[in-house]
Amino acid sequence: MARRTKILATLGPASEDADTIRSMVDAGLDAARLNFSHGEPEDHRQLARRVRRAADEVARPVSLVQDLQGTKIRLREVAEGARLQEGQTVDVLASQALTTSDRLTVDDVRLVEALEDGSQLLLGDGDLELVVRDADADPPRAEVLAGGGLRDRMGITARGVELPGGLTEKDQNDLLVGRDIGVDYVATSFVGSAADVANVREFLAAKGDKTPVLAKIERRQALDNIHEIADVADGMMVARGDLGLALEPQQVPVAQKRILRACQQAGVISITATQMLESMVENPRPTRAETSDVANAILDGSQVVMLSGETAIGADPTRAVATMADIAEATETAIGDGELEDEAFEGAQPGGSRDDAIANAAVVLANDLDADAIVTMTTSGSTALRVAKFRPWAPLIAATPDEDTYAKLSLVWGVRPFLVPEATTLDDMVWVAEDAAKAVGDVEPGDTIVVTAGQIGVPGTTNLLRVAQVR
């Protein structure tokens, strides 16, 4: 049984060379994350070229996901040896000056303006903690509750402080770079509302770009608006790093389940990220807890599981991808064999549209007939996405003549994309579907396939359902 859960991995210093990228693809990489919080545009262009080259070599698509920095607030450059000591008081200000042991200079004045007495400031991964004691002072003053060393561009989370979202100037410039590269998805950071997603989509649309937008859920405000965000985004990411700073640690597991359930109900891509196999940054094997974390994310309904530091700066990025693939395959096998049951694998409920009804019917029909494969004939990818959201267990093959769609579908749960010539008639469509099933799905002459498609020449529709016996 081919693995249905997809693997997204971050590229970085440990995985930037062509040989490592190729070995990660061989190990099961489905999508590569380009982290625009770091690196220069040419760095990302070079990584993208290497990913595309590796995908061509194995004749299998690998999606490119551009991850925008968003409104992440960071320290300015830090003076050498600067440290915070428990009990001391420091200034907090927006300035170009160096951060020192008694002054935190940040890159966004909105943080300073929004502080109130009692506001909690977490630095880095939350190891350094401060509380604002005098927000009215100029500059505001904060007491150090947990100290430690400071470093350049250290992230700052202001727990309980609602900051406006929206596209920064850097994000806008980076979107233009991503458009030039030809990324398949844009992940927008620190989303607070559906409007934040709409802003990204509108910026792209003004450039004639329809790249799908993924919303990273990292703020308490986003949880309050989770269903509205799911309705406008093409997918959502449980970004547990910053989310785990915005919330108390014990609140994160429940938040994760809420986000994944919202994705399931809306029928959009769901991604679980951050520290999934964190110990593999240094070690050759994950901990038992990490293995359970990945498996449980899949059982919760996560369609994609993501590697961050494990592949960006880890000791063995390829081994991390292979380990993630092994865990996903073992979990799916247990579900398929009936050892485990989880309602998340029942998929979404039909939304009442004709397109959804036909996609759902294709899955039901394939189950009833014990079909050997479902083949979606798709130009835009919408037919494959609709079928995938109903979680079929029959192999799901997406036959498309469009190279951009071919690359995008690599991130979609269960989908095995395949490039085909354009069909001009209904008979052509069925013949092309049969050929795709034989090429990709281990289907043989005499096997039964369910074919679903949109109207020929009209992308974005799903109105055809047919059962065929492979020639």
Your description of this structure?
The protein is an alpha/beta fold. It has three domains: 6-71 and 166-336, Alpha-Beta Barrel (TIM Barrel); 73-159, Beta Barrel (M1 Pyruvate Kinase, Domain 3); 354-469, Pyruvate Kinase, Chain: A, domain 1 (3-Layer(aba) Sandwich). Helix content is 37%, strand content 22%. The protein contains 16 helices and 22 strands. It has helices at 18-27, 41-58, 109-114, 169-181, 194-206, 220-224, 226-232, 240-246, 252-266, 288-299, 309-312, 317-336, 354-369, 382-388, 403-408, 426-440; strands at 6-10, 31-35, 63-67, 73-74, 83-84, 89-94, 103-106, 120-123, 128-134, 141-146, 148-149, 155-159, 185-188, 213-217, 235-239, 269-273, 304-307, 373-377, 396-400, 415-419, 448-453, 464-469. The strands form four sheets. It has an eight-stranded parallel beta barrel with strand order 1-2-3-13-14-15-16-17, surrounded by seven helices. A seven-stranded mixed sheet has the order 4-12-8-9-10-6-7. A five-stranded mixed sheet has the order 20-19-18-21-22, with helices on both faces. Strand 9 and strand 10 form a beta hairpin. Helix 5 (194-206) packs parallel to helix 7 (226-232) and helix 13 packs across helix 14. The longest helix has 20 residues, at 317-336. It is elongated. The mean pLDDT is 93.
